[in-house]
Amino acid sequence: MELNITCIPGDGIGPEIVAQAKKVLSRVCEKNGHTVKYTDILMGGASIDVHGVPLTDEAIAVAKSADAVLMGSIGGDTTTSPWYKLPPEKRPEAGLLGIRKALNLFANLRPAYLYDELSAACPLKEEICGKGFDMLIMRELTGGLYFGERKTYEENGLRTAVDTLIYNENEIRRIAVKAFDIARKRRNKVTSVDKANVLDSSRLWRKVVCEVAEDYPDVTLEHMLVDNCAMQLVKNPGQFDVILTENMFGDILSDEASMVTGSIGMLSSASLNDTKFGLYEPSHGSAPDIAGKDIANPIATILSAAMMLRYTFDLDKEAETIEKAVKQVLKDGYRTGDICSEGCENVGCSRMGDLICERI
Ligand code: IPM
Ligand code: MG
Fold first, then answer.
1. Residue 225: predicted pLDDT
2. Which of 5, 94, 124, 200 has the fewest CB neighbours in a 10 Å radius?
């Protein structure tokens, strides 16, 4: 098979971690008789520095012509970087939101899984995380507060700002269908998270999710208010299989879910549309404080590449090969600094890439 991949190294640690994911992808492709072609594009701060904008139409066109996009991270230090002196629509994050919208990537899958080998890094008590957990957050990614109308204005000398949380039933239905479909491949449970005791958009969300559920009698549906969900994630994370939620709630809950796994450096993600196309990126940010030091954890990006093999290319066996190599490297006692504990060998970013390659 021929894999045509657009890469966005991006900012901060992005270029270092993407380099490792490419190394691992190339290795697994070579071993299995696939050819892989990479084309880099600029996005975020790297694009601002060259083009003055965080995302160009040309870059979008290159991404669209590929089978999938592999991304590192974008953005810099919001207090010191000159990028944050620009108007909001010209800052790095606008590039990420722009590409999500331009490619219609409405479904964001963020798995949060506790590795046995990393249970020491889990901040929860043994009695809470002892049995482990394995959940997937299905976050709606192109609607809600992120894309509703917004403005800042002055009324009678009073500075005022407004953001709009808007969803239509089609946007809710298509993400709910993705959640139920994937639940069937897991443990057949969907927890739909909303704020239906306050918000109209949540009340519509709940109604439409219930309608979709009628087509999935084999999947258990439960509804949970978002504040309760934030609490349940640290009280009993093992209860969750698929968490289905809107854009902003999903942003917040996925950071929380990642932290209970021990390190945000382990968590992959996939952003999908209605076709096989997808954008794959780690759930974490650009960590400008450790950029260029070869100490970042590349595993989240490497696991995102595995998700790409599975969801875009249907190469499940190759995806598993990568996932097994990651487990093996942890079993063998190698760790980057963020997940290192006593008795383990602390290795840098590129060495971690090499060690995973050796196990493929
Ligand atoms: C994420 C990030 C982005 C988001 C930011 C960088 C715009 O936090 O992917 O979770 O809020 O979606
Ligand atoms: Mg986030």
1. 98
2. 200
Residues 148 and 237 in one domain: yes
Distance separating alpha carbons of residues 49 and 114, to the nearest angstrom: 38
Asked if residue 116 belongs to a domain, the reply is no
β 278-282/68-73 pair status? parallel
Instruction: Check residue 132 and give left, alpha or beta (phi > 0: left; psi -120 to 50: alpha).
Output: left
DSSP 144: G
Helix (H, G, I), strand (E, B) or coil at 76: coil
Q: For ligand 1, say whether the CB of 93 is within 6 Å of any of its atoms.
A: yes
Q: Which residue range is the domain that position 256 belongs to?
A: 123-260
pTM comes to: 0.95
Q: Verify whether residue 195 is a known catalytic residue.
A: yes
Whichever domain contains 83, its CATH number is 3.40.718.10
Partners of 269 in beta bridges: 281
Active-site residue, from 40, 77, 134, 255: 255
Ligand 1 atom 7, closest CA:
93
Summarize pLDDT for 256-300 with one digit per residue, the tens.
Answer: 998 898 888 899 999 999 999 999 999 999 999 999 999 999 999
Distances (CA, A) of 122 to 97, 141, 171, 244, 300: 31, 28, 35, 23, 16
3-class secondary-structure state, position 196: coil
The pLDDT, as a whole number, for residue 229 is: 98
Q: Are 75 and 12 in contact (CB under 8 A)?
A: yes
CA 121 from chain centre, in angstroms, equals 20
The torsion region of residue 33 among left (phi > 0), alpha (psi -120 to 50) and beta comes to left
d(CA 173, CA 180): 11
- Residues of the chain under the 70 pLDDT cut: none
* Ligand 1 atom closest to 97 (CA): 7
> What's the gap in Å between 251 CA and the centre of ligand 2?
5
Pairing of strands 268-272, 35-40: unpaired
Kind and range of the H or E run holding 16: helix 14-31
Under 8 Å between Cβ of 21 and 302: yes
113 contacts: CB under 8 Å, gap ≥ 6: 133, 134, 135, 261
Q: Looking at the structure, tell me whether residues 83 and 24 fall in a common domain.
A: yes
